[in-house]
Amino acid sequence: MAEPADQLAAEALKAASVSNDGVTVTRRSLKDLIEYENHLAAKKATASPAAMLRSMCSKIVPPGGH
Predict the structure, then answer these.
(1) Which of 2, 13, 34, 43 meets the CB 3.0–4.6 Å disulfide criterion with 6?
(2) Is the pTM of this model over 0.70?
(3) Cα–Cα dist 15/24, whole Å
């Protein structure tokens, strides 16, 4: 399966709407595809607790400590 970024690049080059013999096909907008890609990335990031912990950049500091 192709990477989402590669799919978006390919979709950007295609026509938004095509008509032939009275049949019209319309593609989803690039905005919708980008939102879907962001949704999948967020879903993948939250699927694993270890991945969530790695993505958090926090430092535990005791009270009064710097």
Answers:
(1) 2
(2) no
(3) 12
Q: How far is the CA of 29 from the CAs of 2, 20, 32, 47, in angstroms?
A: 19, 20, 5, 27
**Measured distance CA(36)–CA(4) in Å, rounded:** 9
Residue in 31, 36, 50, 44 with CA at minimum distance from that of residue 4: 36
- Rounded CA-CA distance 21/9 in Å is 28
Do the Cβ atoms of 27 and 11 come closer than 8 Å? yes
Give the rounded distance of the alpha carbon of 11 from its chain centre.
14
Nearest Cα to 9, choosing from 33, 44, 25, 38? 33
Residues 6+ apart with CB under 8 A from 41: 4
